[in-house]
Amino acid sequence: MFSRKTRKGLLGGAALALAGLMAGEAGAAGAVLLTKEICTNPADIIVSHWAKLKHGASDVYFMKSTGEVEKINTETDFDDLANVYVSAHGSPANVGGITNAHFASFFKAAHANTPDLVFFSSCSTGAGDVRKLTNEKYGNAIGSLYGPLNSCALVGDGSADLASAQNLYSVSHTDDDDFNTVVDNIMDVWSGTGEYKDTGMTWKAACEAYVDPLDTDDLAEFHDAVYQEFMVDAQSDDIATSHNYGLLIKWNNEGTEFDVCGADHAPCPN
Question: InterPro entries given for it (predicted)?
Fold first, then answer.
């Protein structure tokens, strides 16, 4: 069995949205920003596909550890999209392994125009100062910056449908034993016995090969293959062998809405 920390990271590092969140932006174009933490487990990429299905955020970008933001599956400039969903494992001190201060500087360098919305799908980032630091780069003019105050996860409350899932933090789940079994199965396919296509590499190893040095074409293909493998094609009837991520979403049943700050809300804390 993996530790509780590993299970929480698998589920929550990249959870994105709340029920009814930003109804005005539902279906609007947006950007998803990924980091090297996509290689930890499938969560960040699953959430990227959630953002596409739920919010129309189909343009995917990658922030390197050195700060450059590269296009993955789009010809649209990152700066042209007003709504940005940051899908990366994190903590109060970092986003995708990048310190809060560096992330804010890198983000501003790549996105000169003031965004309408920045949604941090990094666990516990709402408890740190990344939203405050990022907003300060724009003269505190970003309308809404969302962030979870603890570990977060996509919540289906009985449904495995990705597009209708909510995102909450401090999430509870049902079916404990089955839940843990599926988490273990996912991680075994990801970094143990599973092979990515015919590469001779695990999914994790392939991801790491495409991220450093960054190969945008291979990463774009990998991004779609993860969704296909872990959400679409993975069977869910035999729990003992299933690596279907949708089951985890289905069994997540309640939690707390993300914190929001910004020009349209209260000032960002910390």
Answer: TAT_signal (IPR006311)
